[in-house]
Design a protein that fits this description.
- The complex is a heterodimer.
- Chain A is mainly alpha-helical.
- Chain A is built from four helices and no strands.
- In chain A, α2 runs parallel beside α4 and α3 packs antiparallel against α4.
- The relative contact order of chain A is 0.14.
- By secondary structure, chain B is an alpha+beta fold.
- In chain B, the strands form two sheets. Chain B has a five-stranded antiparallel beta sheet with strand order 3-2-7-1-8.
- In chain B, β2 and β3 form a beta hairpin.
- The longest helix of chain B has 57 residues.
- Classes of the chains: A mainly alpha, B alpha+beta.
- At the A-B interface, α1, α2, α3 and α4 of A face α1 and α2 of B.
Chain lengths: 110, 260
């Protein structure tokens, strides 16, 4: 419950503060957000399956974000930043869909 | 991709919607502990980042260099296209402006020519300085030939428009003697009548009065009967109001190919 409240508070804070992203972080933020969303769906699915673990979720979320940012950074250094970003988004998108399908199956039985 | 719940180390867990809803309910109603606070903090960061990125994505500052180059290219191409369009439109505008200027000029020239021709052809009234001659001729002494000589004299003296009685005199006007009557342009003219002429009044006056000229030939004492009288008055404003109908040519057509 308190986690959902935290999410809502974060959204509200973002809307109120209107922060500016530093230029160096601009390429990484969208990928990091998608990675975090993937971790979130994965954690929700684990919760419904009864195998949720706070520590695993926290570590996977942070690690996903860092890896995604690192991949994009590497891509930028290699000169294929745009393509690699697209690849990461595609992979994470597929995972999000798979997790969403599992969640749907758990909650609706179909 | 992931269709079945992963096996979890031999411990069988209940699956299916009922168990899932139960877990969801207990998760939502669970008492906050340290781990939950940590999760809340992480999700706070996630929500913050999502909103930030959403707002960031709506302007150019979030784009990569390659995207910016593409946007710049698009803008440049668009600018070139619009400039070409503007040049075309300016050409058109200039063309139209000069065309309308030329048209106005041509119309002014045509108007002036029409005025000249209509006066020469006698199709429009004319007004200007000139002379007013009154012929009093009780015994019809003035023959058509004398009248024609008078008209020729007026023309030689520079008369631009001439009217005899109610008949406009132009190049094709006929003077015919029918018995004692004079027909001018097909109409019988009986004295007393007026001859109006527009032109340099002093020149015309002088020309009419030269010895052996019009004045003398009209007022010459005849062998019998009463001599005709002629009065000549110069006037600053002589109105010639007799007009001829404009006749459309029935046979001829202008030849545009022949040079002027």
């Amino acid at each position: 419950m308190i986690a959902v409240i935290g999410l809502i508070l974060g959204i509200v804070a973002g809307l109120v503060l209107q922060p500016t992203v530093p230029t160096e972080l601009q390429p990484y933020l969208p990928i990091a957000v998608v990675a975090a969303l993937d971790a979130l769906f994965g954690g929700f699915r684990a919760l419904l399956e009864g195998i949720f673990d706070d520590r695993v979720f926290a570590v996977s979320l942070v690690f996903n974000v860092l890896v995604a940012a690192f991949v994009v950074f590497l891509g930028d250094q290699l000169g294929v930043g745009a393509q690699l970003s697209t690849g990461v988004v595609v992979v994470l998108g597929i995972r999000i869909f798979a997790n969403a399908a599992a969640i749907r199956r758990q909650l609706l039985g179909a | 991709m992931i269709s079945e719940p992963a096996p979890t180390g031999g411990v069988t867990r209940p699956t299916g919607p009922t168990a899932s809803w139960g877990r969801l309910r207990s998760a939502v109603t669970a008492r906050p502990d340290r781990a939950q606070v940590l999760l809340a903090a992480l999700l706070f960061g996630l929500g913050f980042a999502v909103v930030t990125q959403v707002q960031q994505a709506s302007d150019l500052s979030g784009l990569r260099q390659s995207d910016l180059v593409r946007v710049l290219d698009d803008v440049s191409q668009r600018r070139v296209r619009l400039e070409g369009e503007r040049a075309d439109l300016e050409d058109t505008l200039q063309g139209l402006t000069s065309a309308s200027g030329r048209e106005a000029e041509a119309r002014a020239v045509a108007d002036a020519q029409r005025d000249t021709y209509s006066i020469l052809a006698g199709t429009s009234p004319a007004v200007g300085p000139g002379v007013r001659m009154t012929v009093i001729d009780p015994d019809n002494q003035v023959r058509a030939s004398i009248l024609l000589d008078a008209i020729q004299e007026l023309r030689d003296a520079g008369a631009e428009a001439i009217q005899v009685a109610d008949v406009r005199v132009v190049a094709s006007t006929t003077f015919v003697q029918v018995g004692n009557d004079v027909q001018v342009g097909g109409e019988i003219v009986r004295a007393p009548f007026e001859i109006l002429a527009i032109g340099d009044s002093s020149t015309i006056d002088t020309a009419l009065r030269i010895p052996g000229g019009v004045y003398e030939s009209i007022t010459r004492r005849p062998t019998s009967g009463t001599a005709a009288e002629l009065s000549i008055v110069t006037d600053d404003e002589v109105l010639i109001d007799a007009v001829l109908p404009l006749e459309e040519p029935g046979f001829l057509a202008p030849d545009d190919q022949a040079g002027p």
